[in-house]
Specification:
This protein is about 45% helix and about 20% strand. It is built from 8 helices and 8 strands. The strands form 2 sheets. It has a 4-stranded antiparallel sheet with strand order 3-1-2-8.
């Protein structure tokens, strides 16, 4: 199930971040920096507001948050970051997209290229795999105690503008268009639903099955990429159990 794979990816990525606490604040600082480029007022910038909420969920101090915003708005001297997207193929032709935020493009490019080549993959040109993915808002609501009525949540989400909602193993996944993402989140919160996770992500149009050996190579590739402080998101179309 595609939705379950997305939630699995969110869980695994968050687990990797939590395992390296020394890097988690830098991860959020970069996200806040990027969002604040569109405006430093979270009341007027939904993307910044969401980035701040995620940072606070991981107990990032307010001083760190304010510093990241000031860097982006030019009111504080600091490194200048740029967003870069790398596209390529992993083992068995798995399509991979890596988003980074870096203050040294040459260093980051070398790290990404090394991770791909060491694990049976290769980088491609811009657009070589992005056409295989759709941008989708993904909102996760947990129902581990089974107190949430599925029909009621579905009607509420659809009424708010969601495209569809999936349910599996105590997890509701609400999917939206990027344009309706923030409106749906706000509506669900106002209706009393607790959002476990939310992001605008890339969802594969199709998934690729791999053998055990290539599965392990792919996991090694992802781990190497996640070790880089510059990597923000990794998307792929490998089918996961």
């Amino acid at each position: 199930m595609a939705g379950h794979s997305k939630w699995h990816n969110i869980q695994r990525r968050k687990g990797a971040q939590d395992a390296k606490r020394g890097k988690i604040f830098m991860y959020h600082a970069k996200n806040i920096y990027t969002a604040a480029k569109a405006g430093g007022d979270p009341d007027m910038n939904p993307g910044l507001r969401l980035a701040i909420e995620k940072a606070k969920d991981d107990n990032m101090p307010n001083d760190n948050i304010d510093r990241a915003i000031k860097k982006a708005t030019g009111t504080l001297d600091g490194a200048s970051y740029e967003e870069v997207t790398y596209e390529g193929y992993g083992p068995s032709g798995i399509a991979i997209i890596v988003h980074v935020l870096t203050d040294n493009r040459n260093r980051t490019a070398a790290e990404i290229r090394h991770a791909f080549s060491k694990n049976g993959g290769n980088l491609g040109t811009t657009g070589s795999v992005s056409f295989m993915f759709n941008r989708t808002g993904c909102i996760i609501i947990l129902n581990e105690d089974e107190k949430i009525d599925e029909d009621e949540l579905t009607l509420t989400a659809i009424d708010a503008g969601a495209e569809d909602i999936e349910y599996e193993s105590g997890v509701f996944e609400v999917n939206t268009t990027p344009d309706d993402f923030n409106e749906v989140i706000n509506h669900l919160k106002n209706e009393g639903y607790e959002i476990e996770s939310s992001e605008i992500t890339l969802v594969p149009q199709t998934y690729t099955e791999v053998n055990e050996e290539d599965n392990q190579s792919m996991m090694n590739l992802i781990e190497m990429l996640e070790e880089s402080e510059d990597v923000q998101d990794i998307h792929h179309n490998m089918k996961e159990d």
